[in-house]
Design a protein that fits this description.
- The complex is a heterodimer of chains A (348) and B (277).
- Chain A is built from 14 helices and nine strands.
- By secondary structure, chain A is an alpha/beta fold.
- Chain A folds into two domains: 27-131 and 257-315, Periplasmic binding protein-like II (D-Maltodextrin-Binding Protein, domain 2), CATH 3.40.190; 133-254 and 321-346, 3-Layer(aba) Sandwich (D-Maltodextrin-Binding Protein, domain 2).
- In chain A, helix 6 (189-202) packs parallel to helix 14.
- The N and C termini of chain A lie far apart (65 Å).
- In chain B, helix 1 packs across helix 13 and helix 7 runs antiparallel to helix 10.
- Chain B is globular.
- Classes of the chains: A alpha/beta (348), B mainly alpha (277).
- The A-B interface holds A 3, 6-7, 10-11, 14, 63, 65-66, 68-69, 72-74, 161, 167, 169, 203, 206-210, 220-223, 334-335, 338-339, 341-343, 345-346, 348 and B 5, 8-9, 12, 36, 55-56, 58-59, 62, 120-122, 138, 140-141, 219, 223-227, 231-232, 235, 237-242.
Chain lengths: 348, 277
């Protein structure tokens, strides 16, 4: 055999092996679900598989951006994904999502009208609400004895090394913007610059910048004042009853994680079936109980235990919510946010 | 050397997993536009120009300083350690090497997480300090914690190459020097140290390279307060989605590592073996 012939042979072998391995999971009824970590009751997936005889490949991501990059690069053929508001806006803009056939999702009727037709998806053509929540301050009553109702407390010298901030540029810059009385979606470079200055000023007081670990730090009393998402607050309060959650008076962020079908899906009907299943009251209630975030599903709320149903952390008063803003897609302005965040992080 | 056809799989492997990715990084770094639509790229050096901004240079400077510090500490701790091990009798020596290697069987991330529970405000060390009646210290989420993490994780990479060179030094050379009246210090500075340079050089590179590019240690033990160049690259790829700029940073970093290795190689010119190359 010539050298070239051998080379071709080796290449062919590699390709054959490749096809064999990738060919394995090409069965008809498989759904690829892409969700946030720790964001579903695992038994729900099992029930779906049993009920409809569809195999579910479940994988998770940690940030919207993470998920976006993976979908955009075509690295996974996901059938259902769970992005947040501003990311849905961006994905719609970039034509990455299928329009939903609402006839296939009858359980959509269980979703509270408040959560339908929001600004990021005006006619709800592309997404179905899954969970929602707010951003606020979680604090330990034993250590922080004064009344907490303002973002200002995160800049109080008294609490040096007690403060935990979110290691997420939109959230932390958003907090600073709100403290200054600006919009969280500011596109004014001067406002952003001011936000940067106060975040740099705050840096010596901050114990650490984290995302998921904030729960553990607060439960263990490592830190006593932190910016958290409401679901994490619920979970932390369950473990440590001295913790309390407030939405500051300057206002905050309200966010929505919705289910969408990316254009990479090869099985739109089945994906809609899955979304419908997730909107079923009993299923949504089980997920809510497990995850701790707030469900937009009216029927599901009825099925929840009293303490969750009446929780002001998960279901705040109307007037608190009115002060909250939804994130918008910053599109090209994202580089500005990015540079500012880098400047904050690079400073010490 | 003529390549046998059995080596083709390796060549294909290297092409797919080393050469093509490197070329892609290089390509991204000198282009702009949507990386997912390769047809519409434009050549530009803006990514590199952006990196010349003082904030990014500061980050680079800090990464290099921390990496150099941790390399120096590893060397100061590791060299005596390697000597002690190499002088020990065979049985003890093997036991000591094993002790050095066993922690590396555990996951690197897990070992770094373990430090969180040791150094934390209510961690084990502070618990002991408090129970002795002293004020707790702030041990975590600062530069020193990052440095500790680097030294702890990368020390074996310094000790093992130096050890493997020391063990090979011909004992008769040392005896000869002693016979000719050299003091202990002279034997060390004029015989042992020069002969162990290949090991030191590979130890330096093996510690410096991962230390300068780490992003896990700085985000776990630095609490996200101290951004290093590795965190910057991570941020560009995962958060901002600016792969072009992220690639440009990676290229700059690779150039720095290449330069530092070239400098290292200078010290190692006439020595063969024991080194990384």
């Amino acid at each position: 055999m010539t050298r070239l012939g051998k080379l071709v042979l080796v290449l062919c072998l590699i390709m054959i092996i490749n096809f064999i391995f990738t060919g394995c999971d090409r069965k008809e009824d498989v759904l690829n679900i892409y969700n946030w970590g720790d964001y579903i009751d695992p038994t729900v997936i099992k029930d779906f598989e049993d009920e409809y005889n569809i195999k579910v490949n479940y994988s998770t991501f940690a940030t919207n951006e993470d998920m976006y990059v993976k979908l955009k690069s075509g690295a996974g053929n996901y059938d259902v994904a769970f992005p947040s508001d501003y990311m849905i806006e961006r994905m719609i803009k970039e034509d990455m999502l299928y329009k939903l056939d609402k006839n296939n999702i009858p359980n959509l009727k269980n979703i509270d009208e408040k959560f339908i037709n929001l600004s990021f998806d005006p006619e709800n053509q592309y997404s179905v609400p899954y969970f929602w929540g707010t951003v606020g301050i979680l604090y330990n009553r034993k250590v922080v004895k004064e009344k907490v109702d303002s973002w200002d407390i995160l800049w109080d010298e008294k609490y040096k090394n007690e403060i935990v901030m979110l290691d997420s540029q939109r959230d932390s810059i958003g907090v600073a913007l709100k403290k200054l009385g600006y919009s969280m979606n500011s596109r004014d470079i001067n406002e952003l610059r001011k936000a940067k200055e106060i975040l740099i000023k705050q840096k010596p007081l901050v114990y650490t910048y984290v995302i998921d670990e904030v729960k553990d730090l607060m439960i263990a009393g490592e830190a006593n004042l932190g910016v958290v998402w409401s679901g994490d607050a619920t979970a932390a309060i369950r473990e440590n009853e001295n913790l309390e959650y407030v939405i500051p008076k300057e206002g905050s962020n309200i966010w929505f994680d919705n289910m969408v079908i990316p254009k990479s899906s090869k099985n739109k009907k089945k994906a809609e079936l899955f979304i419908d299943f997730m909107c079923r009251p009993d299923i949504a209630a089980r997920n809510t109980d497990y995850v701790g975030y707030s469900t937009p599903n009216n029927e599901a709320i009825e099925k929840l235990p009293e303490d969750i149903k009446n929780s002001k952390v998960a279901y705040p008063n109307e007037e608190d919510l009115e002060r909250c803003e939804i994130f918008k897609d910053p599109s090209d302005f994202i580089t500005k946010y990015d540079i500012i965040w880098t400047e904050i992080k690079a400073e010490y | 050397m003529k390549l046998k056809w059995t080596s083709y799989p390796y060549i294909v492997w290297m092409a797919i997993f080393i050469i093509i990715p490197l070329l892609l990084i290089l390509f991204f770094s000198i282009t702009s536009g949507d990386v997912f639509r390769l047809g519409e790229f434009q050549f530009t050096l803006d990514n590199f120009k952006r990196f010349m901004n003082p904030i990014y240079l500061k980050v680079l400077g800090r990464s290099i300083t921390l990496a150099l510090q941790s390399t120096a500490i590893c060397f100061l701790l590791g060299y005596p350690m390697a000597m002690i091990i190499s002088k020990a009798e065979l049985k003890k020596r093997n036991a000591m090497i094993l002790l050095f290697v066993v922690p590396m069987w555990m996951n690197f991330l897990l070992r770094t997480y373990a430090w969180l529970t040791l150094l934390g405000r209510n961690g084990l060390i502070n618990y002991i300090i408090k129970s002795l009646g002293f004020e707790p210290l702030s041990l975590i989420y600062n530069n020193k914690a990052i440095l500790l993490g680097m030294v702890y994780n990368f020390l074996p990479f310094m000790v093992l190459p130096i050890y493997s060179v020391l063990i090979k030094i011909d004992n008769s050379l040392i005896e000869a020097a002693e016979d000719l009246g050299a003091s202990k210090l002279e034997v060390f500075t004029r015989i042992i140290l020069p002969l162990s340079i290949p090991g030191i050089v590979s130890g330096f590179t093996m510690v410096f390279m991962p230390a300068v590019s780490t992003f896990v240690i700085s985000s776990l033990l630095g609490g996200g307060k101290y951004m290093l160049i590795g965190n910057l690259v991570e941020q560009q790829f995962l958060w901002s989605g600016d792969w072009n700029f992220g690639s440009a940073i990676s290229i700059v970093m690779m150039i720095f590592i290449l330069i530092s290795m070239a400098i290292m190689a200078k010290f190692d010119e006439d020595e063969k073996g024991g080194g990384l190359w």
